[in-house]
Amino acid sequence: MNKQLRKAIKNAETKLNEADCAVQSIEKFLTFARFNRDEPQVSACNGDEIILNYYGREMPIERAIEIMEYSGYITPDDFM
Fold first, then answer.
1. For residues 16-48, b (16+ Cβ closer than 10 Å) or e, as one string?
2. pTM of the model
3. What is the pLDDT of residue 45?
4. How confident is the model at residue 1 (pLDDT cuts 50, 70, 90)?
5. Domain ranges for the chain
6. What contacts 28, CB < 8 A, 6 or more positions away?
7. How many angstroms separate the CA atoms of 32 and 37, rounded?
8. 3-state DSSP assignment of residue 75
9. Distance between CA atoms of 72 and 57, rounded to whole angstroms?
10. From edge to edge, which strands make up the β-sheet containing 57-60?
11. In terms of pLDDT, which residue wins out, 45 or 58?
12. What is the CA radius of gyration of the chain?
């Protein structure tokens, strides 16, 4: 048994979980309108990019920030 390998894997799993929690915490700062119950999901893409995903349509987090600063909420039309 390779204890160093197991330790490295455990460390990576812990870091991945921390990163996932950090990405998911963004959702509480976003306001959505007219989505009914199917709101966009925040996720990491390619390991270094954060996006909103809505039925296969993606929005870079930078665009979401711009929309939130301009109108205060994100709508399905913003994904067009």
1. eeeeeeebeeeeeebebeeeeeeebebebeeee
2. 0.80
3. 86
4. low
5. 3-79
6. none
7. 10
8. coil
9. 20
10. 41-45, 49-54, 57-60
11. 58
12. 16
* 8-state DSSP, 49: E
Secondary structure (3-state) at 46: coil
Summarised one tens digit per residue, pLDDT across range 23-32 is 999 999 999 9
* Alpha helices (H) along 1-80: 3-24, 61-71
Q: Could you tell me the two tokens for 40?
A: 């966009």
Whether 27 and 47 have beta carbons less than 8 Å apart is answered as no
Q: Name residue, tokens 């711009």.
A: 66
Distance (Å) of CA 12 to CA 8, 26, 41, 43: 6, 22, 24, 18
